[in-house]
Amino acid sequence: METVTLRKITRENWERIIDLKVRDEQKRFVASNLYSLAEAKVFPDCVPLAIYAAEQPVGFLMYAYENDRREWWIFRLMIAEEEQGKGYGRAAMRLGIERMRANPDCDRIFISFEPENSVAEQLYRSLGFVPNHEILGGEVVYRLDPPQKSETA
User: Fold this and answer.
1) 4, 20, 40, 116: which one has the fewest Cβ atoms less than 10 Å from its Cβ?
2) How far is 38 from 53, CA to CA, in rounded Å?
3) HSE of 29 in the Cβ direction (CA atoms, 13 Å)?
């Protein structure tokens, strides 16, 4: 697998990012990248990032500190239809989690998804997310707890 990086959305790449699409049957699970970029403009706490592999954009990730709940959230993850199944989503999630955890006030990270999106559930569980026993806007909420401290010194 090529090296995956998260990059800022810029004047040079924004059109390529909004052109990325998921499969038709996945469109009900994730907002378009155009909508997400508009949302990030209106809600400046959102951090929209392009997912790159082999110097090509392959997806989109957006996270934010949710002030109302005082929690860190991953709001979007999308991988372009022709790039799915290559490990880019997992790699991007790990990089996003690492970025959020670099903030001293970040202990738990939350994500929500449509209950019937079993592919997302499988990915998030494999990364350590667990059910938060909460439904938000019709979506199930999962959380990633802080890493356990090693008991060996």
Assistant:
1) 116
2) 24
3) 20
The single-letter code of the amino acid at 57 is P
Domain 4-144 superfamily per CATH? Gcn5-related N-acetyltransferase (GNAT) (3.40.630.30)
d(CA 25, CA 29) in angstroms, rounded, equals 8
Q: What token pair was written down for 61? A: 């990730």
Residue 92 sits at φ, ψ, to 5 deg, of -65, -40
Distance of alpha carbon 135 from alpha carbon 112, whole angstroms? 8
At 76-104, the pLDDT tens digits run 999 999 999 999 999 999 999 999 999 98
CA dist 117 and 105 (Å) reads: 30
CA–centroid distance for 137 within its chain:
18
